[in-house]
Write a structure and sequence with these properties.
The complex is a heterodimer of chains A (about 350) and B (about 375). Chain A is an alpha/beta fold. Chain A has two domains: about 220 residues, 3-Layer(aba) Sandwich (Rossmann fold); about 100 residues, no CATH class. Chain A is about 35% helix and about 25% strand. Chain A is built from twelve helices and twelve strands. In chain A, strand 1 and strand 2 form a beta hairpin. The longest helix of chain A is centred in the last third of the chain and has 21 residues. Chain A starts with a strand and ends with a helix. In chain B, helix 3 packs parallel to helix 5, helix 4 crosses helix 5 and helix 5 runs parallel beside helix 6. In chain B, about 45% of the residues are buried. Chain B folds into two domains: about 220 residues, P-loop containing nucleotide triphosphate hydrolases (Rossmann fold); about 100 residues, no CATH class. The radius of gyration of chain B is 22 Å and the shape is globular. The chains are: A alpha/beta (about 350), B alpha/beta (about 375). Chains A and B meet through helix 6, helix 7, helix 8, helix 9 and helix 10 of A and helix 5, helix 6, helix 7, helix 8 and helix 9 of B.
């Protein structure tokens, strides 16, 4: 049985202008020790998906439907008290912005100790020694002294390490990382990614990594979910998605990426802007920006269906499979020839 | 784009094709103690001896971690900050010590595009006003001409000219960055300094903006100084690249030379840290993970500033004898590196770097 099984998750926010369908029928599952990457542009619903699983959306004006079964328990049906027990203990979250997610008026030590004593019946001393252990593990130099420092005394990368220490302090089974390295430099990003990988191996935790960086996903994920306008455009094993992507949106994302090892004459860009979720386009939500648009795309919403030769690879696009294979091969071929040319 | 073509500035002595020459530029911010009797106790050496030149129509990429002085350098070039020492020559004229009034004719030759498309547009002004402001400041054209020009500019950057009367909040991030670009283009500048123009944008929108910047460069013969921390983006847009570390240039080379044959261990570490969007290559590759953070620019490490984090550090040499930025092998003649033990080949793992460093150390001893 999967550790977390999300089925047909929907999150609607009612606003003054109407109902925003921020997540509209998203399903995925993740096993122990696995890493799932969720990619998509801002506003595609990747963060809201995870906030819904964690029960962190504001109660007022929010409607959540579907189920998120974690260890046999539906998190959407769980009481707030039960959710508080699970959060920070069984499921932990690392937020995007390390500058604002720590409390500036308490020391790092106090905040870490609080994370332990909330969930475990231990003394302050024991909690403190556990905090110290974690700080050392995430590579904070002179942890004995730094534990009594305030967040402003740490650099961005160091604060993100503290956030990771706090998330891992109770050995969670599932770690949700919401763009953990977006605000950081590449060198620091490399440090943080190595750290998350090592800790994942040590504790056999599952990781959900939300990011818009396809490079990060390619390195760290086992499975990928590509989200577009609150829906899943494509999902499957990482090698499959990168080698034979089947959705024009995934092609666009890959084409618009400048690459380190190739000189590209001109980036293939996706035209236009992401749609408003107040009034999403009819039919396939990607059709106004899709270069392969057909008449059926404007009227009929494509279902998320498995690719014929691999049941784990699902995609939602009306194009026939032959065209998709051909276009994917052509697109990836241009990268390869450009690489060979340099 | 003919309605407000910039006339050549009188009294300018334009020679050669070098648009901008920066020599030994330094910017130190004083750190003071005391409230009434302020006494300088130290200086943040944000930019410390940067030199480069830039030809017309060229794009110079500048990369480095946060705090390496790339934005301070950009602000000094734009004369938004007064340099501590050094010389900036723009179109053959020394502009380092010009007063505000003397600087004004040059302002319309050099414009800037900022990082944050949300914070760099005044939320209370309409788009038409934001784009037209520079035209009004420089008294270029009548009211009707200005309006026509603004609409022309909006079209050039891919916005609907009818959106002239909208406010910035009605636009998405990518569209706002387009407004920022239209504003920079308004007075027909020669040089545009782009300070992380795409860092805040999604990949698909980022590609649109990068393509737009390339098209504009081709159409209007623009010269860019392009600052970014994303090495992929810099490779895509630049002709030459400077790598900065703690206020100094550590490596400078033509784009392909730098990416194919980096010489400085820091450049190597930066390149190896960039995630590759290909699962097979990505997994096989070894990252060179640098230890620790960038040291404080108030009290930078002695001699080679990178020696505290360098895998090739040789005690008694790197921390005593500061290296110069010179040509040390490599393909291009203007490939310069500030290192005693430049990399012999690329790619390299950390272990190989260490071993070579140790061998170099014994050889030197």
């Amino acid at each position: 049985m999967a550790l977390l099984d999300v089925k047909d998750l929907k999150t609607y926010f009612s606003t003054g202008d109407g109902v925003v369908k921020a997540v509209d029928g998203v399903s995925f599952s993740i096993e122990k020790g696995q890493t799932l990457g969720i990619v998509g542009e801002s506003g595609s619903g990747k963060s809201v998906t995870c906030l819904t699983i964690m029960g962190l959306n504001p109660k007022k004006y929010t409607m959540s439907m579907g189920e998120a079964v974690f260890n046999g328990e539906d998190l959407l049906a769980a009481s707030p008290t039960r959710l508080r027990e699970i959060r920070g203990n069984d499921i932990a979250m690392i937020f995007q912005d390390p500058m604002t997610s720590l409390n500036p008026v308490h020391t790092i030590g106090t905040q870490l100790v609080e994370a332990v004593t909330l969930h475990k019946d231990v003394s302050k001393q024991e909690a403190r020694s556990r905090a110290l252990e974690l700080l050392k593990e995430v590579g904070i130099p002179r942890a004995e002294r730094r534990i009594d420092d305030y967040p402003h005394q740490f650099s961005g990368g160091m604060r993100q390490r503290v956030m990771i220490a706090m998330a891992l302090i109770n050995n969670p089974e599932l770690l949700i990382a919401d763009e953990p390295t977006t605000a950081l430099d590449v060198t620091t990003q490399a440090q943080i990614l190595s750290l998350i990988e090592r800790l994942q191996q040590d504790y056999n935790s599952a990781v959900i990594m939300i990011t818009h960086d396809l490079g990060v996903i390619a390195e760290i994920a086992d499975d990928i979910v590509v989200m577009y306008a609150a829906e899943v455009a494509e999902k499957g094993p990482v090698d499959r998605i990168f080698k034979r992507p089947h959705h024009p949106y995934t092609w666009g994302l890959m084409g618009s990426l400048p690459r380190l090892n190739t000189d590209v004459g001109r980036l293939a860009q996706i035209q236009g802007q992401p749609p408003s979720l107040l009034r999403p386009p009819s039919g396939c939500r990607f059709h106004p920006r899709c270069p392969y648009v057909m008449d059926v795309c404007r009227t009929k919403d494509p279902e998320l269906l498995p690719v014929s030769d691999d049941r784990t690879h699902l995609q939602s696009c009306h194009l026939d499979e032959e065209t998709k294979e051909r276009e994917a091969a052509r697109l990836l071929g241009t990268f390869a020839t450009e690489a060979a040319a340099t | 784009m003919t309605s407000a073509q910039a006339e050549p500035i009188s009294g300018l002595d334009v020679r050669g094709d070098e648009l901008l020459v920066v020599e030994d530029l330094k910017k130190h911010f004083p750190v003071t103690r005391g409230i009434i009797f302020q006494k300088q106790i130290a200086a943040v050496q944000a930019v410390d001896g940067v030199s480069f030149s830039l030809r017309e129509g060229e794009t110079l990429g500048v990369v480095g971690e946060s705090g390496c002085g790339k934005s301070t350098m950009a602000r000094c070039i734009m004369k938004l900050l007064e340099p501590t020492s050094g010389r900036i020559t723009f179109r053959g004229r020394d502009i380092t010590r010009l007063s505000r009034a003397e600087m004004r004719p040059y302002r319309r030759e050099m414009m800037m595009i900022f990082q944050d498309p949300y914070a760099s547009l005044n939320p209370r002004k309409r788009v038409g006003f934001i784009v037209a402001e520079a035209l009004q400041v420089h008294k270029m054209g009548t009211q009707a001409e200005t309006k026509r020009r603004v609409q022309e500019l909006l079209e050039v950057v891919g916005l609907n000219p009818e959106h002239y009367n909208r406010f910035p909040h009605e636009f998405s991030g990518g569209q706002r960055q387009r407004i920022g670009i239209a504003r920079a283009l308004a007075v027909n500048p020669k040089l545009i300094v782009c300070d992380e123009p795409v860092s805040a944008l999604d990949v698909s929108v980022q590609a649109q903006i990068l393509n737009l910047l390339k098209d504009l460069q081709r159409d209007f013969n623009l010269t860019y100084v392009f600052i970014a921390h994303d090495l992929n983006v810099v490779r895509y847009i630049s002709d030459r690249v400077l790598v900065m570390y703690l206020g100094q240039i550590v490596e400078s080379a033509a784009r392909t030379d730098l990416y194919d044959e980096p010489k400085h261990p820091y450049t190597g570490a930066l390149l190896s840290a960039v995630p590759v969007p290909d699962p097979e290559v990505g997994r096989a590759r070894k990252r060179i993970v640098l230890e620790g953070d960038v040291p404080s620019p108030i009290n930078p490490p002695s001699a080679c500033r990178f020696h505290t984090r360098c895998p090739r550090f040789v005690e008694g040499h790197c921390d005593v004898d500061p290296p110069d930025l010179v040509h040390r092998g490599g393909s291009g003649p203007d490939h310069a590196v500030r290192c005693h033990y430049p990399l012999e080949r690329w790619p390299m793992t950390v272990e190989e770097m260490r071993r070579a460093g140790a061998a170099g150390g014994t050889a030197a001893a």
